[in-house]
Design goal:
Radius of gyration: 21 Å
Largest sheet: 7 strands, mixed
Number of domains: 2
Strand content: 15-25%
Bound molecules: pyridoxal-5'-phosphate
Oligomer: single chain
Number of helices: 12
CATH topology of the largest domain: Aspartate Aminotransferase, domain 2
Strand order of the largest sheet: 2-8-7-6-5-3-4
CATH superfamily of the largest domain: Type I PLP-dependent aspartate aminotransferase-like (Major domain)
Helix content: 25-40%
Structural class: alpha/beta
Shape: globular
Length: 371
């Protein structure tokens, strides 16, 4: 067989931008060190950064947020964790839409609550089934988590769907936790809408989570932020004060430059993702018998591989996404992500946040593997 050396590995499994952090953001970090930003920081983050985040939410997302509602954290993941720990506990249920981002389901469990999964069927392009959400609600339901643009499916929820979810949340007095870290990556005529922008009542029960990781190619800086009801922000700030303390000073100064400075890098990156998305979709259309929905957002394509089940590839029978990922890794040094931990064992997630050449070479290898 033609196993390829592991040092020629191609990673279509990555979950982060392949761009470097823009120069003006790095420069702000260097300046911060020179200016002595080397000490503990305020527990909810620097005031000027919280103000900048509030302004960003107001002007870009239509969310009427004030400084006391903003908590800066060590990443969007950290924001989600803190909120979950403070908002729900033992005996509570939290609705998650399946497929879900793997960390969200674990964080519900870590908070002592029970995840209740509501399927977003592939037949509906992974859009939420609002009636199914209504049916999943019990007396114990406290919150619903949404993630649009969605990792792993690439679905972007439209205003009408968000309104339907909001009405359910209002009727059942639920907290809405919305993870919007991929907000800038939307394609064709898709539009990112923040559920908290719908009206003041929705905003009053919503936590909007975001971060500089994906939008500004800053995954390693570990800065996230969230807008939430002020009383919850106090609890989250307390949790942060007894756990991580305020986030890294230098990284916060870099995040301030990212949020308030020149934004042209965002458009440049999104244009490049759009090109690479087209390229990947062109390749995928030639790979039979897999099925996929064209992603409206994120930098992932979510691929149903059940059409390959029962085939023997590289001496192994394929009966799950894990099987295919293992064979691709062992035989072709090609990393693809089985979506098993996202609650979708029959799908793989392919990332187009990789070089054009890697998409080409990755699909050459996949073509040979499946030939
Ligand atoms: C859906 C989703 N939410 C949140 C995050 C967390 O991002 P970070 O903690 O880097 O801000 C990620 C990262 O992969 C993600 O995919």
């Amino acid at each position: 067989m033609w196993a390829i050396a592991m040092d020629e590995r191609i990673r279509l499994s990555v979950g982060e931008p392949d761009f470097p952090t823009p120069a003006h953001i790095c420069e702000a970090a260097r300046r911060a060190m020179d200016e002595g930003y080397t000490r503990y920081t305020p527990q909810p983050g620097f005031e000027d950064l919280r103000d900048a985040v509030a302004h960003k939410f107001q002007t870009e997302n239509g969310i009427d947020a004030r400084r006391e509602q903003i908590v800066v954290s060590c990443g969007g993941k950290h924001s989600l964790y803190n909120v979950m720990r403070c908002a729900v506990g033992a005996g509570d249920e939290v609705i998650l839409l399946q497929p879900y981002w793997f960390a969200a389901v674990e964080q519900v469990r870590l908070a002592g609550a029970a995840p209740v999964l509501v399927d977003c069927p592939a037949t509906n392009d992974f859009q939420p089934d609002v009636d199914a959400i209504g049916l999943a609600i019990s007396d114990a339901t406290r919150a619903i988590v949404i993630n649009s643009p969605c990792n792993p499916t690439g679905a972007v929820f439209c205003r009408q769907t968000l309104w339907a979810i909001a009405r359910i949340a209002i009727e059942h007095d639920l907290l809405v936790i919305t993870d919007e870290v991929y907000e800038s990556m939307v394609f064709d005529d898709a539009e990112h809408v923040s559920i908290a922008s719908l009206d003041a009542e929705v905003a009053s029960r919503t936590v909007t989570i975001n971060s500089v990781s994906k939008t500004h190619a800053m995954t390693g800086w570990r800065i996230g932020y969230a807008a939430m009801p002020a009383r919850l922000a106090e609890k989250v700030t307390h949790l942060q004060s007894v756990s991580t303390s305020g986030p890294c000073a230098v990284a916060q100064r870099a995040a301030l430059a990212a949020i308030t400075g020149d934004q042209s890098h965002v458009e440049t990156m999104v244009r490049s993702y759009a090109e690479r998305r087209e390229m990947m979709l062109r390749h995928l259309r030639r790979v039979t018998p897999v099925r996929f929905a064209e992603p409206q957002g994120t930098f992932y394509v979510f691929v149903d591989i059940t059409g390959l089940y029962g085939r023997v590839i590289g001496g192994q029978m394929i009966n799950s996404a894990d099987d295919l990922a293992r064979v691709a890794r062992e035989m072709s040094a090609l990393e693809i992500l089985p979506a098993t931990t996202f609650g979708a064992p029959h799908h793989v997630r392919l990332s187009f946040a990789v070089a054009h050449a890697d998409i080409e070479r990755g699909f050459e290898r996949l073509g040979r593997l499946l030939a």
